[in-house]
Amino acid sequence: MPRRVGPRQNMTDPSGARRTIAVLAVAALALATLLFLSSGSQGWFGPSSGVRFHGRDVALEDLGGPFTLSDMSNQPRSLSDFRGKVVLLAFGYTHCPDVCPTTLAKFAQVRRLLGADGPRVQVLFVTVDPQRDSAELLRNYVPSFDPDFIGLRGTKAQIDAVTKSFHARYEIVDHQGDIVVDHTASTYVIDTRGKTRILTPYDQPARELADDVLTLLRSP
């Protein structure tokens, strides 16, 4: 089951959140660098192809599927729009103090590690807190890690449908202004044909994720 986290949050004004973006990005980049410097010795053999991945090959599992949400300009975006690219999909929210900014910073590092192949990777960040995460707030937050990253939002019903299809979980609880958000922290790696192929843990090093992405990019 994908890892879930539950950071505690105080209710903040969106303008205050925007002022913290630079600080969060720098801190997240530092932590992502530590993850990059660490290394893992074990991989996962794909059940259908025998390909070794650092993450878990989920090709034979029923994860994900077509969806359409609104982007940071309130334009509809479908998963099928990104066919031909490897998609890194993560669920989170802009008020997240650690997991989400660290994950986005790692994704930016993965694109840099891939060099010329970096533009063939599309990051999609789906907010599970659409009530607070307006299109404007996503626009100020998500591209601060990489201009090509896309933030997506929708109604609660739409978000529920997408998270359910990916077997992801989230819960938002408001205790008199003190917000608690519990959400899946794993990354879903979707191949160039739109199939969810790899599930990676939050703490997987950027180098390993880049290796897995490159394997998918080179697959026929």
Could you tell me the radius of gyration in angstroms? 16 Å
Note poorly predicted spans: 6-12, 29-42
Largest sheet: 6 strands, mixed
* Span of the ends, CA to CA: 29 Å
Strand portion, in percent?
25-35%
CATH topology: Glutaredoxin
What would you give as the CATH superfamily? Answer: Glutaredoxin
| SSE order | EEHHEEEEEEHEHEHEEEEH
Helix and strand composition category: alpha+beta
Average pLDDT: 85
Question: Which strand order do you get reading across the main beta sheet?
Answer: 5-14-13-8-9-10
CATH-derived architecture: 3-Layer(aba) Sandwich
Secondary structure topology:
Elements lengths: L3 E2 L2 E3 L3 H6 L1 H17 L6 E2 L6 E2 L2 E2 L10 E3 L5 E3 L7 E7 L6 H15 L7 E7 L7 H7 L8 E3 L3 H10 L4 E6 L2 E7 L2 E4 L5 E5 L5 H12 L3
Parallel strand pairs: 8-9, 9-10
Antiparallel strand pairs: 1-12, 2-12, 3-4, 5-14, 6-7, 8-13, 11-12, 13-14
Helix pairs in contact: 2-3, 3-6
What does this structure look like?
- The chain has six helices and 14 strands.
- It has 220 residues and is of the alpha+beta class.
- β11 and β12 form a beta hairpin.
- The strands form four sheets. A six-stranded mixed sheet has the order 5-14-13-8-9-10.
- It has one domain (4-217): Glutaredoxin.
Overview features:
single chain, 6 helices, globular, alpha+beta, 220 residues, 6-stranded mixed β-sheet
